[in-house]
């Protein structure tokens, strides 16, 4: 189903994007992106729940609430967080400058920032950067935009595909950045999704809120929830399907498509976590509730002991069952079965007998699946994360001021 | 006030201890300890809340509940966790073997284990080890006992001192081990406290429960709560003070003494966390409730980004205020003041101006204090932790099977 991944946010009709060098990043890499819809789009957003939310979060929340948007302007290299009134004025100014260049309303421009906390945006560079980015807008600009929002990401993250609603071809795609401060309730995680579907604002917001619960909110890199996270969706209706206004089959088809894009991007974020050498999927099934399943999966995914064990390719099931036991969710050790890949390692309260060579092969893979069956109920949850390596310590332990 | 730290669990009258090599640890280091009171003591205990609790936890809980104990037998090198019925039988057998050697009741012997999960105790070695340890009991045996319970600890942890109750000299002291899987609600954390105070069982248990809340439960090394944690207290009454049976001034004096010992040992556990190069104290004051203060302090102490920043001597206040913001507790960014040592780094929602050289000196110290004043109320909390270093990844990422 997935195709044309490189098309990202420019697969859907009427969307252009660009990414350029404004000079905000010290490294001199691209650091400012614009995504633009030819026509005003229905929009929705979900935002960090961190009480220390950055200025652009407040600006973008207002756009999402209004429900109409035509552009996203995003910068890397400076989070514009903990910057007080100046920061808020700068975020609004970014929207105004972008609106002027694109000849749209400033109230219809989302603003997103990622990077260092506590530093003011260099507005002269931002201003000339926005002009440059507006000129550079391109039907194939998604990759450039994806690169310009990277921080410690090692590659740009994109995904897009086409599906059908009522006989009409509908396109959807997105770009994301992640890497550090990645944890549920959003992270230094930016994700922008564009689609040409026609849908009402209420249902778009509802679909996004639902999908985030099982995609981005199921990713943990380091347990840190950032000040700047947001997932934005713009739906400009140019697919010309009959407007989706109720929870019918068309809505379900769109929900599935949005879920595919968000899940794919969320997994890419976990896969490219800071210093990652392994991609870990933690599946918990047989829980009494989704909340219990999620608590246990997240407890395992966050455990530094489990994550360092995976880095060392150590099938240390003791650390896994231990993390399950302190998750604060209902589980009965004697009923729980733990597998690494397909190999059962813990059963009936005891370590299981297993083929050591086969298990060694499982742990040597880049992608490792940790499975728990609680045998208590019908609910499941899956969390994605990565291992904890020397490189994570190096990336975050270096003094950058 | 603290003195004779080396006396540890053998400062109080009537207590002897020993630590010997039973052959359980692969390294060949000492791995079995006994602590013995000449007369039956009033006892209390607090235990891991991990649902995957090890066999010795169940055995020792029963002793604590009975309220009378005369000995503790503890081994390192094997946690006797996830070992099912065999593990439970082995834990009981340890109590019986110890009781026989010491000529006491098996129901009055605490059992503690720490080490690898999912492996059965080598009972032949345990049996001969218990005989050896019983013979080796000594008035100055605390250091030997402290060494024999170490796992990845780099030094034995002990503390003891003398105070007065009603004109009588009362002694109290303890030993502890920590290092990995260290997080509130106990950790692979064992702590044994002995005192010659005379106190009722109810008040001893009450005092211990209260003290643990602000000492051991305020330590985090890696956020992992172990299967085997316990803090045990034995009070044998040989100080001949008037038995403490109500919450009077004598009780307060004992509570303060117990708090001093437990806090001192808890800080030693944080200081010697796996791979630690820094000791971090996080003080949160001005909270509306202790729970809020604790949530914020713990959120900062657990943040891998804060911990790696401290490893890198980076005064990254953005990560600190960010971790405070996602703690799930009430805080208002604009009212919060963050200091590193005495230097204010964040105030009124913004980074503060500070002397960079002075701040560099603060971060270069081994002990770093992170202070937050929320300016919302009167409640405080202090959490102790350590930094996250390459060495933590090395210790836990090596494949040991």
TrEMBL record, chains A, B:
Molecular function via GO: L-glutamate N-acetyltransferase activity; L-glutamate N-acetyltransferase activity, acting on acetyl-L-ornithine as donor
Active site: 188
Keyword Hydrolase: no
Keywords: Acyltransferase, Amino-acid biosynthesis, Arginine biosynthesis, Autocatalytic cleavage, Cytoplasm, Multifunctional enzyme, Transferase
Cellular-component GO terms for this entry: cytoplasm
Organism domain of life: Bacteria
Annotated site residues (Involved in the stabilization of negative charge on the oxyanion by the formation of the oxyanion hole) in this chain: 114-115
GO biological process, one term: L-arginine biosynthetic process
Subcellular location: Cytoplasm
Binding site for substrate: 151, 177, 188, 274, 396, 401
Keyword Cytoplasm applies: yes
CDD domains named among the record's database cross-references: OAT (cd02152)
Subcellular location, principal: cytoplasm
Enzyme Commission (EC) number: 2.3.1.35, 2.3.1.1
Pfam families: ArgJ (PF01960)
Database matches in HAMAP family: ArgJ (MF_01106)
NCBIfam families noted in UniProt: ArgJ, PRK05388.1
Entry's family note: Belongs to the ArgJ family.
Subunit description: Heterotetramer of two alpha and two beta chains.
Functional description taken from the UniProt entry: Catalyzes two activities which are involved in the cyclic version of arginine biosynthesis: the synthesis of N-acetylglutamate from glutamate and acetyl-CoA as the acetyl donor, and of ornithine by transacetylation between N(2)-acetylornithine and glutamate.
Designated name of the protein: Arginine biosynthesis bifunctional protein ArgJ
Organism: Selenobaculum gibii
